[in-house]
Specification:
Molybdenum Cofactor Biosythetic Enzyme, Chain A; 251 residues; 3-stranded antiparallel β-sheet; alpha/beta; homodimer; elongated; 6-stranded mixed β-sheet; Alpha-Beta Plaits; 2 domains
């Protein structure tokens, strides 16, 4: 549930975000996606509301269409994958095409790559030089771990390898405008969802500023429900929690 | 990479699919998504090409917009989540609205739910009767595990609880038209991606009917690369594998 808080006019709304995973191997089921979960946790911590995740194929048109759909709908778009040296690394080109800007080798990216590989004692292959190609006007992400990440306006292009993705997220998030992290309370009841539905529905009607989710579970023959209550106003969250606990303890 | 095979005129193209996860708890980072991976594996087995995964919030407008975007783009759309008895279970209503059809209690769904709960020795609450609401013209999925799943045209609405989701997938897939599973070969090289890029690019140019992916890894100070080669023609896949192995063994 994503009801608008009644005090939205006085409280500045949080920035929003989408994640775009470039992922043939996710779609084929060979690999489990991990970067979206990591970034979801980090965004929640800093009050940026993640609204959508998309996984598309390693396909120029599919990446470009998704970038253009998402960048107008959300404050930020974070992409994962497809910025290495091989023929299937087409994210930078697709992002440049989506913005309608040229792409070419950037001297600062080339110098940074060169320094990194020199420190490892290896020289770059021609294919690796391609990783220094970034769209015109892009800002490099201030971490270099093998492939340069960059931002074009509100689209942030990150690596797919999880350890590198995480370093880039850590470097990038502090320079984005942050919001108000929500207060989140989770309650666990050994009561089936069907018996919780009515009091929860009444509670949700009285607290339209809070998001309330209901998640059934079953373990050892017991049917139970986890309830998650979230909101920007901690006192309201606490009041709703107290009321739900009271309503269910007397049933 | 998703190049069209050169023999597409003689080989019937595989059906395509998208998965839509209704998932506030995925977006907040509280929960790791698991259903998409399971379905990706099952679709790959039966030759249905999964092209996109989306995760959206538990929000009527967001679900409806995604359903309408995906159902015209792919042969099938599979949704996960939001069909239980609580106020945040809005998927059935959002799908009905997306198709512009009414929604109401269906007698066959109600009878099946009633029988299931009677077998458990419990009666249904009013909230649980709501689970028998399905869009007009929907076909029920022939498995009943607490909440009815259903199909409206090419949109298949499944539960979010993983064990129930998996039962519904097992019941549903055999009645969908299936395609030709691709032959997939994975090669592991202890060679960095930068050194594999050039021969792989040449190979991809010569085998436009095959999809080739390159996935760098690092372990114990060794930088290596996994190469995945896929296609509908097993002999072509084998030939490409042999050529790549030959090219890299002589370097």
């Amino acid at each position: 549930m994503t009801a608008s808080p009644p005090d939205a006019s006085v409280r500045r709304p949080n920035p929003t975000a989408a994640i775009l995973i470039i992922g043939d191997e996710i779609l084929s089921g060979r690999t489990r996606e991990a970067n979206a979960h990591h970034l979801a946790v980090e965004l929640t911590k800093v009050g940026i509301d993640l609204r959508e995740i998309r996984v598309v194929a390693d396909d120029h048109a599919a990446i470009g269409a998704a970038v253009n759909a998402l960048r107008v709908g959300y404050t930020h778009v974070f992409t994962s994958g497809g910025i290495g040296p091989t023929h299937d690394d087409i994210t930078a080109d697709a992002v440049a095409a989506a913005f309608g800007v040229p792409i070419g080798i950037r001297e600062d990216a080339r110098a940074a790559l060169s320094a990194l590989y020199a420190a490892r004692g290896v020289s770059l292959s021609e294919a690796q030089w391609r990783m220094a190609r970034v769209p015109d006007g892009a800002r490099l992400i201030e971490v270099l771990t093998g492939a340069p990440g960059f931002s074009v306006e509100n689209v942030h292009v990150l690596a797919g390898v999880p350890s590198i993705f995480q370093e880039m997220v850590a470097a990038l998030l502090p320079r984005l405008e942050q919001g108000t992290p929500r207060t989140v309370r989770e309650l666990r009841f050994e009561i089936g969802e069907g018996r919780i539905a009515a009091p929860l529905r009444a509670l949700a009607a009285d607290y339209p500023d809070l998001a309330m989710g209901s998640y059934p579970w079953a373990a050892g023959g017991v049917h139970g429900t986890n309830i998650v209550i979230k909101g920007q106003d901690a006192a309201r969250v606490d009041a709703a929690v107290a009321r739900l606990e009271g309503a269910l303890s007397t049933r």
